[in-house]
Amino acid sequence: MKQSLKRKFINLFMILVIINILIGTFSIFNLLKIGKASDAVLNENYDSITFCDKMLDTIDFMDKDILSYIIYNDDKYLKAFYEKNTDFNEPLYFQLNNLTEVYEENSTSDIKKNYEDFLTSFSSLIKSNTNSSSDRKEILLKNYTTDVKPKYLKLRKSIRDVSLLNQKAILNKKGNVTEKIHTSTLSMIFLSIGLILISFLLTLKLISKFLEPIYSLQKDILKAKEGDFSHKANIISKDEIGMLASEFNDMSNKICEFQNSTLGQLLNEKNKSLAIVKSIADPLIVLDINSRILLLNDACQDFFNINQQDVIGHHILEAIPNGELFDFISELLNNNLDTSSKIMNFKDDEFIYNVNLSVIMDTNSTLNGIIVSFQNITHIKNLEKMKNNFVSSISHEIKTPLTSIMMGASLLEEVNEIKNNENISKIISTINEDSQRLLTLINNFLRISQIASDDSLLNKDVFNIKSLVETSVLEFTSLASTKDISIIFDSYVNESNYYGDEDKIGWVINNLLSNAIKFSNNNSSIYVTIKETSTSIEFSVKDEGIGISHENIPKVFCKFFRANEDIDGTGLGLSLSKQIIDIHNGVITCDSTLNKGTTFTVILQKNI
Question: What EC number(s) is this enzyme filed under (predicted)?
């Protein structure tokens, strides 16, 4: 009876299984043998070494407590000493019940005896303590040196002896284990080589009998691999190979049908997208154009305590009743924006997230949905708050004594003897100038920390920004005249109202004018311009001063940056100005040419 291909494979498989069972059984036997030997090395002896280490650590602490008691005469060290008695007795008890080596029992008994002697010597030391004696410390130290310390060292040596005994035992057992491992390894290698060789020869002999019918099918498969699924395989037998060829033809037909549709590709891409969304660690929601939920990930379900099955197809306000979030999404849709981001607080301001919106477009640039992702920045915001609070606290602490120094220096300037002494008068004047400079620096620090802490500190109201700029120009006219500088003001607006913090915007204008005067040459001009568009208000300050080099322009808004070290300044004014404009959602830019002048431009979005 001719065997089927299936039966041939079964016979071959059974032979290989038997060979693998032989190899596996022998390997398991050797591994168990090695494992028992390893346990013998590690368990009892390792435990004894651990107990000895604990006892050594404990008596070292007890010895330190004795010395601390002698030096400081404080009963808390006595209490600490007696508390460690339990810490010593516990590993000692376990060691007495873990005797595995020759002579270990005697050595362990020595530990117990030496420990009792150590405690006895310490008790004698305590009895010799006389608090009223003036040379108490010297007496106790002498008793400690002659009686307690020798017993401490003897006890320590006896513990070390037990530890070394077990370490030597581990080394000896390790050698035995190594020898067993070597022998077992060689046995497994020779057995494996022999059985593998037998398996190889049997496999070659058996497979050669039924591989030839597959070669024809292989050629047909190669044609299908090249994309020719219309080619049909020749069925040359009625056994399993023939059945396989028939199934291959059916598969080719189905593939041809499937190629005519994109359903498979769409399902595959959908599953990939779902897997990516689910794996994102931050909360994420996918909405349709009507703000109905299409998909959300596990992180979103956990944070907002919602279930995907309950909210799919529902409006986002039903799942997350947050009006600010919905308004933010609506603003993106109404303004036809592609992306937008905003920092929002959730769960009673316990969590702070950077909410990012991105629209989903199809190939025809038609809006299909919105992706809402939440980036947790709570920790970052908390660190910023701590930093600003620290700067504010330190600045206030420095400001008080600095004010006292300035008042003292001012009073000294009025003393007649100092007025008549030119050298001392110069020193007092220098103190005043440096103190004023430090006070300005501290005030800038405070202003930066207040602004950076929270934009809710802004005192926003509607004000006329044109009038604000005009007022600043008038205030600086007299200062500019000291250098024969003329300020030219050009306005291209009528009455431009802006909703913001008038004081802080005014401070920015004043800082730009002050810098322009400071860095301008004598007999030059400063141009102040204000204009508006349908969506923004823009004002600029242009001078004809020393200018800024091209490589330094990106640094002008950095804290403590000063383009010219020869001119007084703190390097904080422009940094603070940028922060103020940023929290008003505006933009401040710098354009400069070295030795020709600088132009600072501020653009504020209209918001009323």
Answer: 2.7.13.3
What CATH number did the domain enclosing 564 receive? 3.30.565.10
Mean pLDDT per 10-residue section of the chain, whose length is 608 residues: 62 74 74 61 73 88 87 85 85 81 79 86 81 74 87 89 83 74 77 80 72 70 69 67 71 67 58 71 87 87 87 88 88 82 84 87 81 84 66 62 70 67 73 69 63 59 90 88 90 83 88 88 92 89 88 79 56 80 89 89 82
d(CA 352, CA 345): 5
Residue written as token pair 């400069």:
592
On whether both 89 and 181 belong to a single domain, the answer is: yes
Bridge partners (DSSP) listed for residue 360: 369
Judge whether 152 and 125 are in contact, CB under 8 Å: no
Assess if residue 206 is contained within a domain.
Answer: no
Range of the domain at 239: 213-259
pTM of the model: 0.36
CATH number, domain of 318, equals 3.30.450.20
B/e letters for 96-113, b = 16+ CB within 10 Å, e = fewer, are eebbebeebeebbebbbe
C-alpha angle 14/19/23, rounded to 5°?
145
Tally the domains of the chain.
5
d(CA 603, CA 143) in angstroms, rounded, equals 84
Three-state DSSP class for residue 498: strand
Q: Are 476 and 506 in contact (CB under 8 A)?
A: no
3-state secondary structure 444-484: HHHHHHHHHHCHHHCCEEEEEHHHHHHHHHHHHHHHHHCCC
